[in-house]
Structure to design on (1087 residues):
């Protein structure tokens, strides 16, 4: 048999009806005879207008599985649709894959311990023999916790598994988001799905942002807040540079910080061997500090980044090639994409063009695309990180 | 390589180096520090898996302190992978970093890397040296080939050198901490020990400043540790000479000089914080020497002398006296009544006889013997429970002289008085205290059969709360009676106050025990010192009565008035013997007498006389009428009838507090049974003449 992936969307305003419509759309694309013998995973991406309770109810009435995972996103896309209001239901049906779902609560209270609990559960499931493992992570993107989550998981689970994921987001409005599995719905959690398969899986993260500033030393920082750059007030250093660089922002950087900063994130050198950067989005400034989405280590060296359409699109093809390379000679049968919502907000055409590039690489296999708030994965072969303003892409085979 | 790329590379290298260097040494925790270092190296150099092994200082084995990117990393760290010698042997030999950028199948199999053998494609093992000693190993693995460039390795090596220094610092800190904890543990143990021992301990530095004072020493000196610390030793441990009360130099200086322990002597008087005195025995004052043998201070150990023997004997003695008292109280009352009748009748017989009559002298002898018996009963009564002294203000010097004259009369013993003029008065029962002096003086007299001198010395003395005697603080008159007689052996000295202890063929053995009981009832103290063959010295402390201005009048009304008016007297007593005696006596003396045997009769008789227009001028009531209303109850009723009633209470017991308060109850006078006719008349006269 093998593995089949299909997606269905709905923009019906009623969550129950939308879930029904979405899953039926997905189911029509799959041969019903396959169902009995196969394992199933349902991924449900919903925008914040929808009540997850009714979504789950709608899904369960149409498919018999206890592997439903989902979360609130800023939007989603498939091969032919981009929606910022609606429901996406994706089904992975396979006799080659095994799925293990988990919902770990109270993530922000003690991210390290919660992450360790999750790692512990996974080590119990994961067989010692050689098998490909993918951990899909859907955390609440509360500041500073996701970096710890990713780091802790990697410390204890290591390079044996691949990591992909994105943060729950809501179009930069910072409302309450939900993560859910089967019949558990909650906020401040990390929903995860461990996929074990003998088929290879490809992962990569890309962004295309380029440094425009000299390096600044983060002389004082805690978690996701930068207090000082080069022994000076962080915001002043940042503002001075931006105002010099772009005369247009002079008048509104104070009042409309987020709007300005969306174009000028920070970059932390990935490693000594790579010209790549881990991007840090700035969301606000408090008393001269810069608040980021994700941690910035003290004493790290950052640079202010910017990009244009050409830069951003230029990274896509090499990343897709790198992802595909990890599948060896297997054909991709579908993609799971965590696409930064701020990238989408910068340019909608860009997403359209990227979708067509992905489709090209996939040979028209289905895309499960998520507009996320922060992306989890590895740039090149590095250790997985929590990225901003990036695209984390995962190919199944 | 294009120029911008070159600069960019340099910026990256420098920023990575800067970040990692600045993060080294930010924690004093070995595990945290290693975690952080490894995490930064992996991330900023772009490796996938890594671990740090450190040599255990005690076992000398390499142990994982941290690992990242393994599968089940926590289990790896928990286990002691001492068997995993991968790279260690080689590095110990070559002291050089091992780099493998390509792995053959066999090389890969050598890697004992749980679950990840197949995935690793290159690795580097960097030795961690501190001063040429291999203290650890940083192991880095990459999933890609050729991940370890020479440039990167050089950078990592220089970071590792820095990391090694920090590890060394942490090791030093840890061993310091361990030592400190050991030290603190020891200190605490020592502190607890010194606090809980029964000896008093004070330590000082070489400048005599107090550095420690234990609980016992706090208790004895009265100084709290808080106040005492840092004070000069002589301020807290203040010792004076018993005689001249001058501070004693305790040889502190010589101790510091010689470094030898010194004994400070015994039975020293310590002045406590609140200026009271305590007798202490001093064990030793010894130098405290440090490791190099230099004197760093002194330790002083001492104890308070609490004479346990003294306390125990006091207690037993009190018990014995108490039981004797119970017995005496029982018989003395009856005895008294009998004696009263005897004395009364003798008296009556004598009134009717001229003194030159033969029988008169016989009767006089009988009266003498009876009076002696009465004294003995009185003495016995002082043992009984109440036996409250009838106190008045009196001069002990007068009483001493009177008693001595009486005792020594006709003996070849002389008395020497050393009594200051300003000797305080005492508030005491004259009869009882006189008895004490009498008993002691008599003993002394008897102890010097061939004559000698008794020295009587008195002085005023103020005692503080901590006097070595069981006395409360206050002013006392101290009386010393010293003879040069046969003396008492120290063994017998403990027994002399015991009732019935005697060495004399005709002795009762009650003399001193009575003296003891009397003094005790007066809240005084009696003690004895004696040397066999040399003499004995009794010392008595009696509370002083300081209102000297008060006029002292002793009752020596000698006038015997023969002009007796025909006055009416009502006498109530349950004893026929007494009634007969009184009735006869008073009638002979010209009174009109009526006797009643109980309260009801008395009231009836009183009322009858009152109604007849010839009321009684005086009523004499017995205090106790067995099983019926006594004198106290009766007078209440009589006072209701006649508030200006004149009444006398009589009793054989002097142990009821009412006897001291008879005036409050409404009596005008008190007669102690047995009484002589003279005493009876005297009392009646005094009351009726007022
Ligand atoms: N001044 C003294 N010198 C030597 N021994 C004494 C002296 N005072 C008392 N004792 C000893 O103490 C004993 C007890 O004395 P205590 O006065 O109680 O009884 P007593 O003198 O023996 O009898 P009593 O007092 O009835 O004559 C005496 O028998 C005697 O051995
Ligand atoms: Mg005697």
């Amino acid at each position: 048999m093998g593995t089949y992936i299909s997606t269905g969307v709905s923009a019906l305003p009623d969550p129950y009806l939308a879930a029904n419509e979405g899953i039926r759309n997905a189911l029509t694309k799959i041969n019903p005879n396959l169902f009995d013998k196969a394992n199933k995973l349902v991924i449900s991406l919903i925008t914040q207008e929808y009540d997850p309770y009714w979504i789950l109810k709608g899904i369960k009435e149409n498919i018999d599985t206890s592997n439903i995972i989902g979360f609130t996103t800023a939007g989603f896309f498939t091969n032919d649709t981009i929606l910022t209001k609606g429901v996406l239901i994706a089904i992975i049906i396979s006799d080659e894959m095994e799925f293990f779902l988990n919902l770990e609560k109270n993530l922000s209270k003690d991210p390290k311990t919660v992450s360790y609990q999750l790692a512990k559960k996974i080590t119990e499931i994961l067989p010692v023999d050689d098998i490909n493992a993918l951990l899909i992570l859907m955390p609440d993107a509360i500041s500073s916790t996701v970096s710890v989550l990713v780091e802790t998981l990697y410390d204890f689970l290591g390079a044996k598994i691949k990591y992909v994921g994105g943060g729950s987001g809501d179009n930069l409005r910072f409302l309450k988001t939900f993560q859910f599995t089967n019949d558990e719905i909650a906020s401040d959690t990390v929903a995860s799905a461990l996929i074990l398969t003998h088929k290879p899986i490809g992962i990569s993260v890309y962004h295309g942002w380029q440094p425009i500033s000299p390096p600044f030393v983060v002389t004082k920082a805690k978690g996701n807040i930068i207090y000082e750059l080069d022994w000076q007030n962080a915001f002043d250093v940042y503002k001075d540079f931006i105002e010099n660089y772009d005369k247009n922002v002079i008048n509104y950087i104070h009042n409309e910080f987020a709007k300005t900063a969306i174009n000028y994130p920070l970059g932390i050198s990935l490693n000594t061997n790579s010209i790549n950067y881990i991007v840090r989005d700035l969301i606000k400034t408090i008393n001269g500090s810069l608040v980021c989405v994700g941690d910035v280590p003290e004493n790290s060296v950052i640079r202010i980044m910017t990009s244009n359409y050409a830069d951003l699109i230029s990274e896509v093809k090499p990343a897709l090639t790198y992802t595909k390379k990890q599948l060896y000679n297997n054909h991709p049968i579908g993609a799971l994409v965590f696409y930064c919502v701020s990238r989408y907000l910068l340019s909608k055409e860009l997403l359209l063009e990227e979708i067509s590039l992905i489709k090209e690489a996939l040979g028209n296999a289905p895309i499960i695309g998520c507009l996320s708030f922060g992306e989890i994965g590895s740039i090149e072969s590095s250790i997985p990180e929590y990225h901003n303003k990036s695209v984390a892409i995962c190919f199944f085979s | 390589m294009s120029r911008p790329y070159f600069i960019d590379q340099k910026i990256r290298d420098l920023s990575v180096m800067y970040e990692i260097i600045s993060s080294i040494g930010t924690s004093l925790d070995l595990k945290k520090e290693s975690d952080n270092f490894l995490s930064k190296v992996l991330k900023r150099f772009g490796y996938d898996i890594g671990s740090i092994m450190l040599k255990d200082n005690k076992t000398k084995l390499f142990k994982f302190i941290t690992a990242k990117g393994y599968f089940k990393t926590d289990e790896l760290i928990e286990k002691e992978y001492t068997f995993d010698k991968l790279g260690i042997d080689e590095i110990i030999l070559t002291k050089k970093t091992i780099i493998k950028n390509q792995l053959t199948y066999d090389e890969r199999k050598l890697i004992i890397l749980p679950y990840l053998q197949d995935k690793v494609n290159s690795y580097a093992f960097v030795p961690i040296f501190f001063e040429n000693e291999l203290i650890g190993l940083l192991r880095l693995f990459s999933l890609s080939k050729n991940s370890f460039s020479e440039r990167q390795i050089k950078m990592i090596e220089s970071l590792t050198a820095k990391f090694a220094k920090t590890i060394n610092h942490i090791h030093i800190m840890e061993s310091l901490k361990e030592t400190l904890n050991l030290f603190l543990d020891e200190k605490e143990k020592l502190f607890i020990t010194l606090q809980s021992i029964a000896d008093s301990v004070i330590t000082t530095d070489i400048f005599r400043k107090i550095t420690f004072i234990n609980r016992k020493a706090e208790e004895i000196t009265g100084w709290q540790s808080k106040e005492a610390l840092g004070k000069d030793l002589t301020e807290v441990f203040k010792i004076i000479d018993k005689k001249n009360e001058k501070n004693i130099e305790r040889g502190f200086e010589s101790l510091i000089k010689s470094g030898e322990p010194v004994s400070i002597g015994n039975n020293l008087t310590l002045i406590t914080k609140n200026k009271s005195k305590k007798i202490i025995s001093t064990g030793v004052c010894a130098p405290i020497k440090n490791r190099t043998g230099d004197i760093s201070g002194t330790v002083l150990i001492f104890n308070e002398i609490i004479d346990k023997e003294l306390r125990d004997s006091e207690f037993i003695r009190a018990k014995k006296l108490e039981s004797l008292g119970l017995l005496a109280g029982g018989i003395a009352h009856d005895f008294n009544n009998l004696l009263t009748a005897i004395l009364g009748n003798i008296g009556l017989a004598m009134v009717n006889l001229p003194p030159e009559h033969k029988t008169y002298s016989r009767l006089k002898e009988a009266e003498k013997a009876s009076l002696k018996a009465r004294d003995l009963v009185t003495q016995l009564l002082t043992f009984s429970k109440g036996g409250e002294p009838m106190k008045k203000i009196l001069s002990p010097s007068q009483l001493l002289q009177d008693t001595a004259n009486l005792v020594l009369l006709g003996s070849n013993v002389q008395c020497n008085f050393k009594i200051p003029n300003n000797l305080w008065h005492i508030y005491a029962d004259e009869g009882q205290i006189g008895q004490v002096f009498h008993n002691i003086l008599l003993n002394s007299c008897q102890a010097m059969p061939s004559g000698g001198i008794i020295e009587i010395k008195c002085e005023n003395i103020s005692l503080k709360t901590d006097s070595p005697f069981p006395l409360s603080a206050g002013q006392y008159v101290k009386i010393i009676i010293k003879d040069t007689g046969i003396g008492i052996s120290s063994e017998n000295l403990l027994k002399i106050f015991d009732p019935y202890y005697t060495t004399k063929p005709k002795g009762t053995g009650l003399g001193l025990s009575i003296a003891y009981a009397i003094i005790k009832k007066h809240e005084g103290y009696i003690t004895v010192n004696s040397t066999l063959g040399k003499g004995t010295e009794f010392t008595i402390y009696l509370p002083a009565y300081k209102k000297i201005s008060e006029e002292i009048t002793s009752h020596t009304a000698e006038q015997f008035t023969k002009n007796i008016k025909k006055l009416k007297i009502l006498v109530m007593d349950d004893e026929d013997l007494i009634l007969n005696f009184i009735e006869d006596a008073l009638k002979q003396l010209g009174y009109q007498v009526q006797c009643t045997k109980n309260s009801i009769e008395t009231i009836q008789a009183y009322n009858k006389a009152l109604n007849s227009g010839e009321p009684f001028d005086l009523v004499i009531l017995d205090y106790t009428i067995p099983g019926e209303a006594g004198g106290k109850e009766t007078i209440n009723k009589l006072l209701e009838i006649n508030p200006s009633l004149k009444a006398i209470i009589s009793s054989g017991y002097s142990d009821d507090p009412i006897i001291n308060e008879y005036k409050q109850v409404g009596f005008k006078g008190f007669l102690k049974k047995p009484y002589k006719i003279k005493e009876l008349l005297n009392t009646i006269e005094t009351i009726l003449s007022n």
